[in-house]
Design a protein that fits this description.
By secondary structure, the protein is an alpha+beta fold. The protein contains 5 helices and 10 strands, in the order ββββαβββαβααββα. A hairpin with a 4-residue loop joins strand 1 and strand 2. The chain is elongated. The model has no long low-confidence stretch (mean pLDDT 90).
């Protein structure tokens, strides 16, 4: 059998991955960006990502690039779209497989071909390199759709939190304001939360009940989904 029997002379586009990493600082939705240290678009902000190695899957490549460029490790990422516009990269024909993730905000540092890594409030994201502005819009829309059918919060909030913390998270993602009583009633209805025998003092004059997520119920809804209307 000829060694090149199945080596057809078709074009072989390059394949990259990009990761849109969302975090929450207690007030606003944040996104993790890296400053490009090389051309093209040297000095511009972009999403962590890069070219796939021949021996790795897209998810493996995305996680490797994420760790190399930001130091962020063991993030749970979900694929949401593939970008194939022929001229999206000035170097060559590049197809990008895009992922997004929800993580608790932590310190990050630039590495590999990233000059630095930094969290940005989503409303203050600068103009991005390549077609990453479009990727951010798509990822944000995907997140806002998901919040109606999958629970969101376990990955973004601390282990113990107030109902106000959870409400601020949902308001930041959906860019809306909720009535406090209605929001609390709806969240308790789904039995996603455990009310703890603990309180905190957000201000010297106000005491607030602490909650944690019901992990079993949370994982159940995460697998099968649910429908939540605000």
């Amino acid at each position: 059998m000829s060694e090149n029997q199945y080596c057809y002379k078709y074009p072989h586009p390059a394949v990259t991955t990009d990761c849109v990493i969302f975090g929450f600082d207690g007030k606003s939705l944040q996104v993790l960006l890296i400053e490009r240290g090389i051309d093209p678009y040297k000095g511009r902000w972009a999403f962590p990502g890069g070219f796939l190695n021949p021996d790795e899957s897209a998810e493996e490549g995305a996680l490797r690039e994420l760790k190399e460029e930001t130091g962020l490790d063991e993030a749970y990422i979900e694929q949401f779209h593939t970008y194939t516009t022929p001229d999206r990269d000035p170097r060559e024909r590049v197809i990008t497989i895009a992922y997004y993730a929800l993580v608790r905000i932590q310190d990050v540092c630039g590495g590999d071909d990233a000059a630095r890594a930094k969290w940005f409030p989503i409303e203050d994201v600068p103009q991005l390199a390549f077609d990453h502005d479009r990727i951010l819009r798509d990822a944000t829309r995907q997140l806002r759709e998901r919040i109606h059918f999958k629970p969101i919060g376990f990955e973004l909030l601390p282990e113990k939190f107030t109902m106000k913390d959870l409400q601020l998270l949902y308001e930041a993602i959906l860019d809306v304001k909720f009535d406090r009583r209605n929001f609390s009633k709806k969240m308790m209805h789904y039995e996603l939360l455990n009310q703890l025998n603990e309180t905190t003092w957000p201000t010297p004059k106000r005491e607030a009940q602490l909650y944690s997520f019901n992990k079993e119920k949370y994982d159940e809804f995460k697998k099968k989904g649910f429908m939540i209307e605000f």
